[in-house]
Amino acid sequence: MEIKNKLVVVTGAGSGIGRALAQKFVESGARKVICTDLNKASVAETAALIGQTAIGEVLDVSDQPAIELLVSRLEEEGGVDIFVSNAGYGQRGGLDLNIDDWKKMMDVHTWAHLYAAQAVVPKMIARGEGYLLNTASAAGLLTQMDSGPYAVSKHAAVALAEWLAINYRDKGVGVSVLCPQAVRTNILANSDGPAVKRTTNSNQAAQDGVLEAEEVAEECLEAIRKEQFLVLPHKEVATYFERKANDYDRWLQGMRRFKEKLKSARRGET
Fold first, then answer.
1. Which of 7, 92, 223, 247 is the one with CA 20 to 30 A from 72?
2. What is the predicted pLDDT for the residue at 244?
3. pTM of the entire predicted model
4. How does residue 198 score in pLDDT terms, banded at 50, 70 and 90?
5. pLDDT of residue 263
6. Is 89 an active-site residue?
7. What is the CATH number of the domain that holds 232?
8. Domain boundaries, position 138
9. Do 44 and 19 form a contact (C-beta atoms < 8 A)?
10. Which residues of 233-248 are buried (b: 16+ CB within 10 A; e: fewer)?
11. Sequence-ordered alpha helix ranges (H) in 107-246
12. What is the pLDDT of residue 190?
C-alpha cells in the first residue's frame, strides 16, 4: 500500500518504535498521523516533534469502546487507512505473577489488536482497502524465557495477525506483523531490572544486537509498501524460527541451555 495521503493511527506513539513510526509516516507523505499513548506528556511531545500533520491523543488500548470511538470519529475525515497496533510493555515473571498481570499483558498485546481490527476492518472493506501493522515480537515466534505473559501474549498476537491476513487480504485489507528482537526502547531499558547491567551477554533479546527504533520503523514502512506479512528487522530470527519448526524438541533443549547461559552471565554482572 502506498502511504502518501493516508490517514494513520499509531498506538504506543509516546516513545520508541511508535514515535519512530509516526515520524516515518509523516516523512512518507501521510496526510495525518494520529499519535496515541497512555502517557499524555509523551504523546504530546511526539506530536510536537513531528509537526502539524501529527495529532497527539491519550488512548488506553485495552479500552475497546475508546478505540471504537476514535475510529468512528475519524470516519468524518475519510476513515483510517492504516492502523498500527504498537502499544506494549514488559514485565518479568511467570507462574509467580497473579492472573491479573497475565490478563493485562493479553489486553495490551493481543486483545488491543483485536479491538482495532473489529473497529477498522469492516470500514476498510467497505472503502476497498486498508492496512493493519501489528507489533508483536520475536518472542511471538520463539519465546521470552524471562516473561511468561509476554511470550504467550506475543504468540497470540502473531496468530491473530496470521488469521486476519488469511481472511481479509482478498477483501483489500493488508496485514503485517512486526517481530523484532532487541530495539533501543523503554521496554529494553527496563527488561532486566535495576540489579542487572543491561548487556548483550545477559539479555535474551539482545544477543544479535540492539537496533535503533528508526531502523525498525523504516523496515515496517517498506513492508507496508510491499504488502509483506512478516517483518524481521533481525534477520537471524528467520533461521531460529526454521530450526524450531524442524526439530521442536531439540530447540526446547537448546533454549534450556541458553537460559542457563544467561543466568551465569547475569551472576557475573551483579
1. 223
2. 98
3. 0.91
4. very low
5. 84
6. no
7. 3.40.50.720
8. 7-269
9. no
10. bbeebeebbeebeeee
11. 112-127, 148-168, 186-189, 213-226, 236-246
12. 52
**All cell numbers assigned to 94:** 511467570
What's residue 224's pLDDT? 98
Length of the chain: 270
Strands 32-37 and 54-58: parallel
> Cell digits for 181?
528482537
pLDDT score of 195: 33
Cβ(25)–Cβ(3) under 8 Å?
yes
- On whether residue 24 sits in a domain, the answer given is yes
pLDDT in tens, 67-81: 999 999 999 999 999
Catalytically annotated residue among 89, 115, 131, 150: 150
The single residue listed with the C-alpha cell 523496515 is 219
Report d(CA 45, CA 139) in Å as an integer: 29
Number of domains in the chain: 1
| Whether the Cβ atoms of residue 244 and residue 148 lie closer than 8 Å to each other | no
pLDDT above 90 (res 264): no
Per the structure block, which three cell numbers stand in for 57?
491523543
* Residues 6 or more apart whose Cβ sits within 8 Å of residue 197: 269, 270
